[in-house]
Automatic annotation (TrEMBL):
Topology in the lipid bilayer: Multi-pass membrane protein
Segments traversing the membrane: 178-200, 244-268, 274-299, 311-335, 347-370, 401-424, 430-458, 465-488, 500-530
Domain of life: Eukaryota
Keyword Signal applies: yes
Family per similarity comment: Belongs to the nonaspanin (TM9SF) (TC 9.A.2) family.
Record gene name: LOC103511239
Keywords from the named record: Membrane, Signal, Transmembrane, Transmembrane helix
Designated name of the protein: Transmembrane 9 superfamily member
Compartments in which it is found: Membrane
GO cellular component terms, A-Z: membrane
Family matches, as InterPro entries: EMP70
Length: 540
């Protein structure tokens, strides 16, 4: 039974993840193209095929094919700083130090056993035979011995405060990815500048033309986006749902910005395990007040009167969906007896934070939001809705929504590779400065793209911009989901049904939150834009 479980672990490419002095142990090896690759873990074993593969390079070409090989020996190299010429090292007196790096080399060894002596891990005649396990059933019991060796290496050139720097070796092809990220950022900045120039220049001409009064005529003929001034602020359908999503979107946006800011400043060190997620959770709970305030203000501007429903939905809809998905996936962890399962007591603590902290803060924000006067729009809304003319292919809703998510996704897809690798491939993510810059560019790109498409629709006399601005910017999440599917197919080797369900379950949570956040960015940018342009034109 244990041997079958061990074979299955090798088939699924399971890894050991060790921690020494609160640091992950790294395993470095050369790839087929001769490049050095480091990983924060090492495999429990491998299966050697007849063709050249990873196992062949680890075990050797002369070993039999179609066999399992267990990595039952590890060579550990611990690098330390002795503390010489350092204030903190005076207590060691040359007999100790602080660990600055731990690296490991796994090997498969069939140990030579001698009565009354420990297992032999090396031989004077050469390398020992690997620990091979046949693919089929065994005729007799098999005993596998696990051994290790340790070598201590002094290195006083690396300071203890910089000991996490060597983890950067765990990211492959770093220079290429940094160049790609920089190139992507330059393209996005250039396109964003072009979009801004087009909008500002065209709008300037429109406003000047609309406000120009012919000396011989008292009445100015209206055309273009000014023609729909009596309908542009007509409340949308499902205004309750839109206001709730916008409040939650602002909450997620502020949580992301604060968390990334703390990470950039170095407060969320990788030495503090779980600090990033803890900070995000605390920020989300504490930012319930802005969510309630924004939701109440938007809902009141729509003329809504069901304020109790708005408060309850704002505090329960988005957190409830995320918690239900998380709880279902945690049930799978419990069923599989996984160490990654969240204890029931921790779930109760999360629910308590939600009920006793986040909800009251949301109620407070909604209270102040509903006490404020409703947002006054710059133009009056007509009683009878204006008929929308037939739209061309480019100004219809679906093509505009599909095009709206392309540019924002273009500025984040390279960073997505690093983020997904840190989540699913045991890589260490450390480029929070770049991530924060990309996040700011994402906000700018979502805003400008949605504003540009909204302007085209208004020029085509289509005034249904409320939901469209939200969905257009939020459609970036659909491209995010497609990229996650591509990453799953090309980068991961997952065959177990429960693991596949967990991957796409967590992906759905990420995509759902990303949809709400980017949708809110596009909506509020468009909301500001529409109010601004209709406040500077003369309307009879």
């Amino acid at each position: 039974m244990k041997l079958a479980l061990l074979k299955r672990g090798m088939d699924l490419n399971y890894y050991h993840h060790w921690i020494v002095d609160n640091m992950p142990v790294t395993w470095c090896y050369l790839t087929n193209d001769g490049q050095k690759y480091c990983n924060t873990g090492f495999p429990m074993g491998c299966y050697k095929h007849a063709y050249q593969d990873f196992c062949s390079s680890m075990i050797g070409e002369g070993s039999p094919n179609d066999m399992y090989y267990v990595f039952n020996h590890v060579d550990i190299r611990i690098t330390y700083h002795s503390g010489e010429d350092e204030e903190w090292g005076s207590s060691f007196q040359g007999n100790g130090g602080r660990i600055i790096a731990v690296k490991i080399t796994p090997r498969s060894i069939s140990h030579i056993e001698e009565p009354g002596k420990p297992p032999v891990c090396s031989s004077a005649q050469g390398e020992l035979q690997p620990m091979a396990v046949p693919k089929g059933k065994l005729d007799k019991p098999l005993q596998i011995k696990y051994t290790y060796s340790i070598m201590f290496q002094k290195n006083n050139t690396v300071k203890w405060s910089s000991r996490w720097d060597y983890i950067l070796e765990s990211t492959s092809h770093t220079n290429i990815h940094w160049f790609s990220i920089l190139n992507s950022l330059m393209i996005v900045l250039f396109l964003s500048g072009m979009v801004a120039m087009i909008i500002l220049r065209t709008l300037h001409k429109d406003i000047a033309r609309y406000n120009q009064i012919d000396s011989g005529e008292d009445v100015q003929e209206e055309f273009g986006w000014k023609l729909v001034h009596g309908d542009v602020f007509r409340p949308p359908r499902k205004g309750m749902l839109l206001s709730v999503l916008l409040g939650s979107g602002i909450q997620i946006l502020m949580m992301t910005m604060v968390t990334l800011a703390f990470a950039c400043l170095g407060f969320l060190s990788p030495a503090n395990r779980g600090a990033l997620m803890t900070c995000a959770m605390v920020m989300y709970v504490c930012l319930g007040t802005p969510a309630g305030y924004i939701s109440a203000r938007i809902y009141k501007s729509f003329g809504g009167e069901k304020w109790k429903s708005n408060i309850i939905l704002t505090s329960t809809l988005v957190p409830g969906v995320v918690f239900c998905l998380f709880f279902v996936m945690n049930l799978i962890f419990w069923a599989k007896d996984s160490s990654a399962a969240v204890p029931f007591s921790t779930l109760l603590a999360l629910v308590s934070l939600w009920v006793w902290v986040s909800m009251p803060l949301t109620f407070i924000g909604s209270f102040f939001g509903f006490r404020k006067r409703a947002i006054e729009h710059p133009v009056r809304t007509n009683q009878i809705p204006r008929q929308i003319p037939e739209q061309s292919v480019y100004t219809q809703a679906i093509p505009g929504v599909i095009m709206g998510g392309v540019l924002p996704f273009g500025c984040i897809f390279i960073q997505l590779y690093f983020i997904l690798s840190s989540i699913w491939s045991s890589q260490t993510y450390y480029m929070f400065g770049f991530l924060f810059l990309v996040f700011l560019i994402l906000i700018i790109t979502c805003s400008e793209t949605t504003i540009l498409l909204c302007y085209f629709h208004l020029c085509a006399e289509d005034y249904h911009w409320w939901w469209r601005s939200f969905i257009t910017s939020g459609f970036t999440s659909i491209y995010l989901f497609i990229y996650c599917i591509h990453y799953f197919e090309t980068r991961l080797n997952i065959s177990d049904a429960s693991s596949v369900f967990l991957y796409f379950g967590y992906t759905l949570i990420m995509v759902f939150l990303f949809f709400i956040m980017t949708g809110s960015i596009g909506f509020f940018a468009t909301f500001y834009f529409v109010r601004k342009i209709y406040s500077v034109v003369k309307v009879d």
